[in-house]
Input
Amino acid sequence: MQENADVTPAERKPAAVVTNADVASAPEGVRRTAAGEGARPIVVMRPPAFSFDALWHSARRLTHYGDLLYTLSLHRLRVRYKQSVLGALWAVLQPLALMLIYTVIFSEVARVDTGGMPYPLFAYTALLPWATFSTAVSTATSSLVSHANLVTKVYFPREILPLTYVIAALFDLVASSLVLGVLMLYYDIALTWQVVFLIPIVAVLAVFALAVSIILCAVQVRYRDIGIAMPLVLQLWMFATPIVYPLSAVPAQWRSLYMLNPMVAVVDGFRGVLIDGTAPAFTPLAVSAIVAVGLLLAGFLYFKHVEATVADVL
Output
């Protein structure tokens, strides 16, 4: 880059070296004043200490990147179905197709007992939260690797990338719910006030999906086997979740261990609130929330610890 000939070496001011904590805590006006005086703020990325204080500073810094999060999330939705004939209808067709297949296999062939519940509705209400989780994790896992050009050239909190994929998956959940409304009308299932419990259920789903996503995308930067193994892992995980069969089919002696899977309470609660009109069991949902939040905190700390070397490895 050619330097300005009007500025002598003596007049040229050195760049200001600013750490992550300084950038996060310094007021916006201070940064503008420094820029006006000729100082150029530089972010020096270092692995933060494993502490809640570092976690708080990193989370607070995200508030300064709200516009970037919105822009990338909107871009994610536009690009996902770009140049496809059906467009956003793919978000509906995928769980719908699985519902039809499972209805034939587990209703006509295997004859799974659903307690008198129509199997298409039984399967579809469980497939909605599962498809959201599966889509978020499978796409967010490769978010850092697929955006290597962006990550290696521009600084921004890297966790924004997997977060945008989770937001896009939640949008698919809303779109797929339109078909669920049609099925409920067809089978004459009315909504009750218990539907308000969908808010904590979806919140646990989103937190758990984000927790798994940020851990896996950070690991995949160094071990690309993660992306290759994801389809198999998610397939096995699905059959370890009460989607094609009811929770009551799980043997009682295995149920406590089985409930440690946060998706069990999410899927079973989602189905019960909409079809049975009952509130979700508090204890399983609380355990799922604790596991999801704990995993998110641990995953976020790990993600920020390895963030400083992501660009080098990519």
